[in-house]
Amino acid sequence: MMMYIKRFHFLKRKKTKTIFLISILVLATLGGITLQMFIKSKIKKALSEDLPPTIQLTYENLDFSLLSKNITLKNIHVVFTEEPSDTIANATIKSIFIRNISYGKILWNGNLEVDKFIIENANATYFIKKDTLKRANDKAVKQFDKVIKIKNFEIKNSGFESKFVKTDSTLIKVEDININLKNCSVTKETLLAKIPFVYDSYKIKCGELYLNASKYEAIKIDSINIDKNAFMNGFSLKTKYNKDEFQRKLRKEKDYIDLKIPTIKIEGLDFGFKNDKLYFEMISGRIKNLKLEMYRNKLLPDDLVRKPMFLETLYNLPLAITIPEIKLENGSIRYSELVKENTKPGEIFFAEINSTITNLSNTTDTEIVFINKAKLMGTAPIHLEWSFYKKENHNLYKAYGIIKNFETENINPFLKSNLRAEARGTINELYFTISGDDYTSSGDMKMKYTNFGFVVLQKDRLGVNKLLTAIGNIFTNDGSKTDENGYRYGEIKVERNPTKSFFNYLWINVKDGILSTFTSNGKKK
Fold this sequence. Notes:
It is built from 9 helices and 25 strands. It is α+β, with helices and mostly antiparallel strands. The chain has a domain at 46-212.
């Protein structure tokens, strides 16, 4: 009997415990559901009521899990406005996923700390106009007093476009953007900086990029991959119009440009802001198979705007540049000019270009050196060096060049069109050195050449002007009167035209040396 009584009490106690546990479980479940509904309602309220008046956000679905501490938003639309109602940016986003939210941080001080924040399939547009976002951002920063920390921030398969409001034209457009930031954080202090967040590391990949570089030129890149290094495929800088349409839009001379670079590699990339100034640094760069074609219509009026020299342009850039080395491998450049209507433009070109640029920087006074090797008109080896440096606050430059085995007939199409002349003979060797500043330069030249002569053409370029040809060749030495080593010598002394480029400056130095060598007594001084 006692055994049955004990068993009855045991079962009763077990039933009571079971009921108690079930009650606790039910209450915990109800509490969890209630808490989840409460937190979800708080999130909805924050998204609908607690945002600044300059941000409007709508979405179709919000999922929140109290246990997994995850939030998912679907089909989001965000509009950023300036007061009172001008839209300055908008975005449509397929989904936002937030993983492992720290409740303690939110409840303790209102700060947000999460493991992952992922934005997928976003398409954003930013509208450019005067003072855009300035007032809204200033007000938002003053009101912001929280800390946001994200261990892994990602943007996947997204796009961005920036447009001018006045013309509805695109400044920049980027497709298939993928970004990963590690240990990203936002504070009131970072919001005051040029980059409004800090991070430990980043990776960026994107598809096609379009940049409206100027009124007449645009940049396109097929793909970009950036982390500590950077790779670009399919880079191009090109005039937006064909040659004929471009000329009709111009009032002054300007180059038609078609630049293509299949691959660009940058090692040791670093960029950002120091003391509120943008900086760009890298260890080295590699540019492969560059192809540049340029054309100028010389029938248009000259552009008489002053052209700054290289160092002046470099030191006036709005960013600090430090690049120890850039290498150009297997490039080519073609340049043509139209100087008379109904004639074919004269062309000069360089093939198999291999160049090295060292110490390209505007943060030190270290000499910047360009070393170039190529084949002039595709046949004659040419070695050309020039450097820029500062001395006693003056911008100076030096140049040195060698050309060998140049058959002058190869350049006759260019001479015929541009100088109304043709040349004959061979330049076996040509050496020159030049030094100068932004205004004047001087130097010397020595040449070894054989059977050289000029033919001056009629104005229609179809026949020979025998009189001018004869006069010209009287004053031109054919290369027979040389020193014991077969060289003739010339001097260089020119003044720069400040409305012309550095390459024009370099060319008139070489031209002056050639004329001096041909027409003087040819002796070394």
